[in-house]
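hey so i finally got around to running the thing on that chain from the lab meeting. sorry it took forever, my laptop kept dying and i had to restart like 3 times. anyway pasting the input first so we r on the same page abt which one it is
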Amino acid sequence: METTEAKVRGLVHNSGKRTFVGLNWMPNPMPKIIQSGSRTKPIVLENDFKITDSVLLVLPEDMEIESMPSGKTIQFPFARYICSFKKTGNQILFIRQYQQNGGVYSKENFDDYQSMYRAINTGNENLIVL
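ok and heres what got predicted. didnt touch it at all, straight out
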């Protein structure tokens, strides 16, 4: 287990009366497989591993949440991705978990692999509006 504190810029943007907080600043834990043509070989993932990231957002007492994501789960034989949000008082806890299942997966799984990679990268579901 590793605990790290970070100061990250560019997560908060104001627009009129609203404040937008984007929590998708952590890198995608999936290995990037670049391919332009049809997949002809199986997908080989050499390692089993699990990564859990969390961010605790402490809001000023006078801020109200307009919208907060409900979270999501994506599961395939090769990996599972879960992100969740929990509000307690003036705090929001964002937890993101990725678990890779090492092994050899058929080329037919490649579209699912790419889909999961894109879903983790976009992170549009990780935007909080205050």
